[in-house]
């Protein structure tokens, strides 16, 4: 059997084990969802995948580690304040990166063939990875747990289901961000301008929307959300390296496609589903194939339902 | 109010406007007629810089619009209901009107919506319906209503009667007249030459990217060449 793909069922059947995977999957999914929003929003407005978005998330993770180190060097240890500063500085820095990426890699190519913009995006992604590798080193950076503690949710057959404080924190923060962001897009003038550009950028300009500025704003908002995901992952796994953007980026992209690229609720739903798939697959089957599981979903969606679960049916009349 | 002087516009290599001269005075309704592909829609879009004029000037109250970014033009008091209506399809009727009011300070928003709903009661019934699911006529009303929400002094209308039932065409032309009487200058592009020329103070005829004729609405209506080319059999 060596060399053959073997998928072994190795899980347990009890409810407790299932619940634990559910908790883990939702946590992971919330993080993927935050990153997926950036893919979907940028795709919606300029019709292309920002392949450097995973790198933005990676930068967010690094900025949070550096911020933490700086704060501890300064002797600041009040945890809520530390977290707040980590989040804000990550969001600030990645916003600047997101804005610059659009200016440097995409805006000059607007109207050029898609392939050109795609190559530019991939180039940007590689450049950012190398930049972080050079400035931060290639080794994994570790961070001591900042938020510890948790609850035992239930116990069954000697298996305890744990819900950590950190998981609660991640879920509450991501839910709040997603609700807030949906409100921003659905109900505010800024959100309407964003949607107008997405639906017909020429008409948007005719009614007075500054399309270039709206596109920049979209990159900045997507980057800020990815930064939050970066901070969460840093807290959750305790390690970052310059390469984490690639896999997380691909998974969040898969999530966006699964949910329906261009759809905001779709990105959130897709993120949660990918997180659940990954958690359950690792728990019940061979963990080595967990990434394959997520990407098989991408292939299946592209073949059978390219518009994704919540993809927009085209309702325009011409 | 609007003076177009020697405007040339290109789509890539194709020259769609080959030196257009035209003038619209404050308070007028001016109609532009011409065959398919003559360049009428291109002229309206060129006023907004989409596409940009390659040569020539577009003077609006003394200011050259060819140097103004597209999104600033509506702030100068010009609004357009463009070819194809270009309703924001996944926004509601009300949101489309909000988009129209984007360039205003919002202080008169409620009155302006009221005014649009009074002109087009149909839109009020459909205020929460998505733009893309409206009928063609309703979309046309929404496109005009959206343009009015910016409180324009100059309104550009590209074929507002296209695809509408004769009765609705009547209504639309009546409404254009009302809008004009309320003090808005109107530049109207129409295939429906008979109605349009009857309504207009003055008219222009465009052929292949140049203006070939101009005159008062009545002069053009009575002109045998125009009757032959644009009117005979063309109206009820
Ligand atoms: N986006 C475009 N790219 C290339 N050519 C274009 C484009 N838009 C219009 N044209 C060409 O420019 C010319 C003028 O088109 P325009 O739409 O202005 O005509 P029109 O007078 O509005 O016609 P219609 O009465 O059919 O609406 C046509 O030959 C058309 O094919
Ligand atoms: Mg036209």
Please name the defining characteristics of this protein.
heterodimer; A: 318 residues; mainly alpha; ABC transporter involved in vitamin B12 uptake, BtuC; two-stranded antiparallel sheet; two-stranded antiparallel ribbon; 11 helices; 4 strands; 70% helix; globular; B: 236 residues; alpha/beta; Rossmann fold; 2 domains; 6-stranded mixed beta sheet; 4-stranded antiparallel beta sheet; binds adenosine-5'-triphosphate; binds magnesium ion
Report the total helices of chain B: 10
Please provide the ordered H/E string of secondary-structure elements of chain A.
HHHHEEEHHHHEHHH
Unreliable stretches of chain B: none
Order of helices and strands of chain B: EEEHEEHEHHHHEHEHEEHH
Question: Mind telling me the C-alpha Rg of chain A?
Answer: 20 Å
Structural class of chain B: alpha/beta
Number of domains of chain B: 2
Structural class of chain A: mainly alpha
**In this structure, how is the largest beta sheet of chain B organized?**
6 strands, mixed
Average predicted confidence as pLDDT of chain B: 93
Q: What shape does the CA trace of chain A take?
A: globular
- The number of strands of chain A is 4
The helicity of chain A comes to: over 70%
Structural write-up:
The complex is a heterodimer of chains A (318) and B (236). Chain A is mainly alpha-helical. Chain A has one domain: Orthogonal Bundle (ABC transporter involved in vitamin B12 uptake, BtuC), CATH 1.10.3470. Chain A is 70% helix and 5% strand. Chain A has 11 helices and 4 strands; from the N terminus they run ααααβββααααβααα. Chain A has helices at 15-46, 53-73, 79-106, 114-136, 165-187, 189-199, 201-206, 211-237, 244-259, 264-284, 290-304; strands at 141-142, 150-156, 159-164, 239-240. In chain A, the strands form 2 sheets. A two-stranded antiparallel sheet of chain A has the order 1-4. Chain A has a two-stranded antiparallel ribbon with strand order 2-3. Chain A is globular, with a radius of gyration of 20 Å. Chain A starts with 14 loop residues before the first helix and ends in a 14-residue tail after the last helix. In chain B, 47% of the residues are buried. Chain B is globular. In chain B, a hairpin with a 2-residue loop joins β1 and β2. The mean pLDDT of chain B is 93. By secondary structure, chain B is of the alpha/beta class. Chain B has 2 domains: 1-77 and 155-185 and 193-236, Rossmann fold, CATH 3.40.50.300; 85-151, no CATH class. In chain B, the strands form 2 sheets. In chain B, strands 6-7-8-3-9-10 form a 6-stranded mixed beta sheet, sandwiched between helices. Chain B has helices spanning 40-47, 70-73, 93-100, 109-119, 121-125, 136-148, 166-181, 193-199, 217-222, 224-231; strands at 2-11, 14-24, 29-34, 53-60, 63-64, 78-81, 154-158, 185-189, 202-207, 210-216. The two termini of chain B are 34 Å apart. Classes of the chains: A mainly alpha (318), B alpha/beta (236). At the A-B interface, α6 and α7 of A face α2, α3 and α6 of B. The complex binds adenosine-5'-triphosphate and magnesium ion. Adenosine-5'-triphosphate binds at residues 11, 14, 16, 34, 36-42, 83, 191 of chain B.
């Amino acid at each position: 059997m060596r060399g053959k793909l073997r998928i072994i069922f190795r899980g347990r059947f009890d409810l407790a084990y299932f619940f634990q995977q559910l908790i883990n999957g939702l946590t992971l999914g919330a993080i993927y969802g935050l990153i997926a929003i950036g893919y979907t929003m940028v795709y919606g407005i300029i019709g292309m995948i920002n392949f450097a978005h995973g790198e933005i998330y990676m930068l967010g993770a690094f900025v949070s580690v550096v911020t933490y180190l700086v704060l501890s060097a300064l002797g600041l240890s009040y945890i809520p304040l530390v977290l707040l500063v980590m989040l804000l500085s990550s969001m600030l820095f990645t916003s600047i990166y997101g804005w610059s990426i659009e200016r440097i890699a995409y805006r000059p190519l607007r109207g050029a063939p898609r392939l050109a913009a795609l190559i530019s995006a991939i180039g940007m992604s590689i450049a950012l990875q190398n930049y972080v590798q050079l400035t931060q080193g290639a080794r994994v950076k570790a961070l001591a747990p900042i938020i510890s503690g948790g609850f035992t949710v239930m116990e069954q057959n000697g298996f305890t289901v744990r819900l950590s404080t950190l998981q609660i924190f991640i879920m509450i923060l991501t839910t709040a961000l997603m609700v807030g962001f949906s409100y921003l897009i659905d109900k505010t003038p800024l959100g309407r301008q964003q949607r107008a550009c997405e639906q017909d950028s020429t008409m948007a300009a005719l009614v007075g929307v500054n399309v270039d500025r709206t596109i920049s704003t979209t990159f900045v908002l997507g980057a800020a959300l990815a930064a939050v995901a970066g901070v969460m992952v840093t807290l959750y796994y305790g390690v970052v390296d310059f390469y984490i953007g690639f896999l997380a980026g691909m998974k969040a992209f898969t999530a966006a496609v699964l949910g329906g690229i261009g759809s905001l609720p779709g990105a959130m739903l897709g993120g949660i589903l990918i997180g659940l798939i990954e958690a359950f697959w690792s728990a019940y089957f061979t963990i080595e194939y967990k990434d394959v599981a997520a990407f098989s979903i991408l292939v299946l969606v592209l073949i059978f339902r390219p518009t994704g679960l919540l993809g927009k049916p085209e309702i325009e009349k011409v | 109010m609007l003076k177009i002087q020697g405007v040339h516009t290109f789509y890539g290599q194709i020259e769609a406007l080959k030196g257009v001269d035209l003038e619209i005075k404050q308070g007028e309704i001016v109609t532009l007629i011409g065959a398919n592909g003559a360049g009428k829609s291109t002229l309206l879009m060129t006023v907004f810089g989409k596409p940009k004029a390659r040569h020539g000037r577009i003077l609006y109250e003394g200011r050259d619009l060819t140097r103004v970014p597209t999104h600033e033009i509506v702030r100068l008091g010009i609004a357009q209901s463009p070819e194809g209506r270009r309703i924001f399809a996944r926004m509601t009727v009300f949101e489309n009107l909000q988009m129209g009011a984007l360039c205003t300070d919002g202080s008169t928003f409620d009155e302006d919506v009221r005014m649009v709903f009074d002109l087009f009661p149909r839109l009020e019934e459909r205020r929460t319906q998505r733009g893309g699911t409206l009928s063609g006529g309703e979309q046309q009303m929404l496109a005009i209503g959206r343009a009015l929400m910016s409180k324009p002094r100059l309104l550009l209308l590209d074929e507002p009667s296209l695809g509408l039932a004769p009765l609705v065409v009547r209504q639309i032309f009546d409404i254009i007249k009302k809008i004009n009487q309320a003090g808005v200058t109107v530049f109207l592009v129409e295939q429906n030459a008979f109605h349009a020329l009857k309504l207009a103070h003055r008219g222009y005829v465009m052929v292949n990217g140049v203006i070939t004729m101009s005159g008062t609405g009545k002069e053009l209506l009575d002109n045998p060449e125009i009757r032959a080319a644009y009117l005979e059999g063309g109206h009820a």
